[in-house]
Design brief:
single chain, about 450 residues, alpha+beta, Cytochrome p450, 6-stranded mixed sheet, binds protoporphyrin IX containing FE
């Protein structure tokens, strides 16, 4: 029997160009329409794959629990020019398992405590520095700078001010030079006699890599700190396996790619929702002000229940990554369906996060739902799930809590962009405006 005969796929849409267009134009709505028309599990062909997508939580549970060795990462090679071949995004099977086991401990909850003070100080400084003389702040730009600085300090472990500036400029030039044209079309990854976007990207990359290798050498010579680069340099598994410098470079650029924009977008959305909903703002202010008044340590502030509900609800209502996908190396059964090798399974995060059976009034911003109920990993999954669940989830949660608490305690904000909607931004979904606010300092 052939592969095709063995398959039993759900019904769906094979209008590849139309589907690809809908994914690019409005990813959330694409899933809403798809499941509205074909039911909870549906087929969807797009330019980058033949996909079986689901919002059925039983199937999602199975997808996350499934044998990781049967999966290849989905279309992850678009990130290769930045993250390198050794990135967690690109590796698979035993190699992924081994590398991830060494990276994970660097991001465990207790490790975060070392970064609280740093996140608080960067938040205070950015608020001051990025508010212009008319009291106006562009939230997205400020959060973007802020999360970049946190990565440079906490992950790359750089604390010398002039070095921070040098690395910030280099990394920003790399990120700005990343061009969708060559990311999605490998034939454009050519120098064209030193001209064009690829050549420009390569020049910036050479500067950035030089700085990163310099930091690696400096740490080896001058001693290790609390930062994640130091932990990666010392990591070793029971077989004596250690990261090469090249692999460390790839992991650092992966952490930058995965952790910078995502966290900035989440904090920008949070500021929008908090100030769009006066009752949320009032309750949050009360909780946070009381904590600072009592001199509560930052690692306890990071766990305040309503504050935690605010960031969780922020990435429930508009998940920054709308779905996670896995390419099948072996056929997979999902309920009555049999999905063949080479096909892709997709967990439609945005659709589950808006299922009224799981979330009452799903269109409403209600942080208290996370105090009243705890959700299963297949009901709430802004960080994906299973063997590839986001390694930076605890770090991102900690940063969101500390930064939001700091800003809300420090100042009052008036929303100037009052109607903000989700919009695609490269591989993520972000606000369609910079979320401008008027700032007045409270003390
Ligand atoms: C609000 C912020 C963030 C969101 C919403 C987010 C979301 C995600 C999602 C959905 C995935 C894919 C998971 C899957 O395939 O099941 C992922 C993977 C990943 N994230 Fe995050 N992330 C965030 C912040 C961070 C931060 C701060 C870091 C590190 C500093 C980070 C590092 C990673 C890495 C390395 C992976 C790849 C894991 C693997 O393939 O094994 N992320 N993230």
């Amino acid at each position: 029997m052939t592969q095709v005969e063995q398959e039993h796929l759900p019904s769906g849409t094979t209008s590849t160009l139309r589907n690809t267009y809908k994914i690019m134009a409005d990813h959330y709505k694409m899933y809403e329409d798809l499941f509205g028309e074909y039911g909870d599990t549906a087929r969807l062909t797009a330019l980058n794959g033949d996909i079986v997508a689901t919002r059925n939580t039983e199937y999602i549970k199975e997808i996350f629990a499934h044998n990781p060795m049967d999966y290849d990462p989905f279309a992850a090679d678009v990130t290769e020019p930045l993250t390198g071949k050794g990135s967690l995004f690109l590796i698979q099977g035993e190699k992924h398992k081994r590398e991830r086991r060494l990276v994970m401990p660097c991001f465990q909850g207790r490790q975060m405590r070392a970064y609280g003070e740093l996140m608080h100080n960067v938040a205070l400084q950015r608020l001051k520095q990025d508010t212009n003389k008319n009291g106006i702040l562009n939230t997205y730009d400020s959060m973007n700078e802020l999360s970049m600085e946190v990565i440079i300090r906490a992950i790359f472990g750089i604390d010398d001010e002039s070095r921070i500036e040098e690395v910030r400029v280099a990394l920003k030039s790399i990120m700005d030079a990343l061009h969708p044209a060559f990311l999605f079309n490998k034939s454009l990854q050519r120098s064209f006699m030193g001209l064009g976007p690829w050549a420009k990207f390569q020049r910036h990359m050479a500067v950035g890599e030089g700085l990163i290798y310099g930091e690696i050498n400096a740490k080896r010579e001058q001693g290790y700190g609390d930062d994640i680069l130091s932990l990666l340099l010392q990591a070793e598994d029971e077989d004596g396996y250690k990261f090469s410098d090249q692999t460390i470079r790839d992991h650092l650029f992966t952490l930058l790619a995965a952790g910078h924009e995502t966290t900035a977008i989440a904090m920008t959305w949070a500021m929008y929702h908090i100030h769009k909903n006066p009752e949320v703002l009032a309750r949050l202010k009360e909780e946070v002000d009381e904590a600072f008044a009592q001199d509560m340590p930052l690692d306890q502030i990071a766990k305040l229940p309503y504050l935690t509900g605010v960031w969780k609800e922020t990435i429930r209502i508009y998940p920054i990554v709308p779905d996670v996908l896995r390419t099948l190396l072996e056929p997979m059964d999902l309920g009555p369906y049999r999905v063949g090798k080479g096909k892709v399974v997709s967990v439609a995060i945005s659709a589950v996060h808006h299922d009224p059976e799981i979330y009452d009034e799903p269109e409403k911003f209600k942080p208290e739902r996370f105090i009243e109920k705890s959700y299963k990993p297949w009901e709430y999954m802004p960080f994906g799930g299973g063997h590839r669940r986001c390694v930076g989830a605890a770090f991102a949660g900690y940063e969101m809590s500390i930064v939001l608490a700091t800003w809300i305690h420090e100042a009052d904000f008036e929303l100037l962009d009052t109607e903000v909607k989700p919009k695609r931004r490269n591989l993520t979904i972000a606000p369609n405006t910079p979320v401008k606010v008027r700032v007045s300092t409270r003390k």
